[in-house]
Prior knowledge:
By secondary structure, the chain is of the alpha/beta class. It has one domain (5-258): TIM Barrel, CATH 3.20.20. It is built from eleven helices and ten strands. It has helices at 26-39, 53-63, 83-97, 117-130, 143-153, 171-180, 193-199, 201-209, 213-223, 235-242, 251-258, and strands at residues 5-7, 13-15, 19-20, 43-45, 71-76, 102-107, 133-139, 159-163, 183-187, 227-228. It is globular and about 55 Å long. The record marks 75 as: Lowers pKa of active site Tyr. Substrate binds at residue 108.
Amino acid sequence: MTTPTLPMIDGTSIPTIGLGTYSLDGEDGAAAVAAALRTGYRLIDTALGYGNEDAVGAGIRESGIPRDEIVLTTKLPGDDHGYEATLRSFETSRANLGLDTVDVYLIHWPEPEKDLFVDSWRAMIELQKSGSVRTIGVSNFSAEQILRLEAETGVLPALNQIELHIGLPQDDLRSFHESKGIVTESYSPLKGRAAIEADGTLQRIADEFGVSWNQVALRWSIQLGTVPIPRSKDAARQAQNFDVFGFELNDEQMRRINELYL
């Protein structure tokens, strides 16, 4: 199936679900990435700090999926903030991945104590202008930090990748993103397994559709308008996580989930 996409303010688009790759490294990591792409994923998320860009690049090549169908995200680590350091770090990531271009490049953390994220952002703007990067964004940034980027450079990030899951819907930050046209990408979208299973609400909703509670959690995230990036190295679990477009939660089900642990 063709994965639905969301438009971004820079004119590009992003698939509505992706694969997180933290700790997926070596040959097994490459195989996991290739399996996900063959399943239908078209968004793959990594970071220089994960130490697995080489495996992710290998998995993309092994998959047989045309490169232009894949949206590949990597991230600038906190140790590499600053204008020149950002340019050098990007070249390291590009070499690790074995790819000419990166589709989405994010500042992984704002590192406010260093106060260099605006300088890094200026470098990323230049990388985008050069065509080395298609989309630039941030991760773990507050609304105030995003507004500072806009005020000092005139360029908003196309997306902000944040922790978001059942019990942490990030209502205020999502509303801010929506007001600016910024896509919300959600990492750790399946966090809280023990509490979710003990509560039982998600499982009861899942039973109504004949799916798993994981699928309900991911569907909830998508219907909030966010892009979840669940991590899994298991091909069967990857396929289950991806199978979230054949059902839709109604308003009452969304309300029940929104009220969990709040």
